[in-house]
Amino acid sequence: MHSLTVGMACYDLGLGSFSMPSLQHYEPRRISLNQKRYYQCVDFPNVPQGMLLPSVTTVLSSMAPVGKIMALINWRKRVGEEEAKRRTRLAANRGTWMHGVIEEHFKGEDIEHHLEKAPDWKPYYEAVEPFLEGIASPVLVESAVAWWHEEDKLGFSGTLDMVATMSNGTVALVDWKTSYKEKPDYQLADYKRQLGAYAMAAEQLYSCPIEEAWCVIACYDPENKEVDPSLQLVHLDGFELISQQRIMHDTVRRYFEQWYPGKKAFTLTEDRG
Fold first, then answer.
1. Is the pTM of this model over 0.70?
2. Are the CB atoms for 234 and 191 separated by under 8 Å?
3. What does the alpha-carbon distance between residue 109 and residue 125 come to, in Å, rounded to a whole number?
4. Of 73, 222, 260, 263, which alpha carbon lies 20 to 30 A from 156's?
5. CB 186 within 8 A of CB 71
């Protein structure tokens, strides 16, 4: 049996349906600079052409509190460097697998071959199945988005997982994650920041209001099969999204002051001569 943990709001799968047209997809153009990830923003209507902007995850990890950084360092020491690398690699691989299965699910493709190839990861998909039933129609999947503040000459970019119309008629941003176990509330702050950031970028880019956001966390430890998979949900309504977006704006401003080369965003263009 799968347990369901709902954070901050009541989870409702149901009240009629509504769909909206698909949104334009943008391919991410990622660049590594000073060991930090940036996006070259090309053809975004809301960002100057070629602008180089830090990724959402780069901003949040760079501006993380000292306590969180030390906790990560101590964890790597406790489990050992090789084990830490193994777990990090596994998390990335199963996340990629999970995104692929969900995308094919909504395309109506046969996902059995995915599940058969990775039987140890199948419980992650089974954990999110109840939530998938509440999505009426995805309108954007795995797309780069960007946010730009013209007055301050700063912004950020990143790749969101999904924007969808839900079965209750709302337009929602959805972020998929996997974890070995459910996370305590104090570890969910970055997830809420990410939701706020991607929502504000999507709203600015598409002039489309994001009414709510969900971080959907499939929890399961393949190495401890005595514990059933579970689903942990973090939900932000419109008011909570606005609050997170204000925090993200301030965080981006501090990132530019501390980490961005020259402290002002610049463009990067290709010389085709």
1. yes
2. yes
3. 15
4. 73
5. no
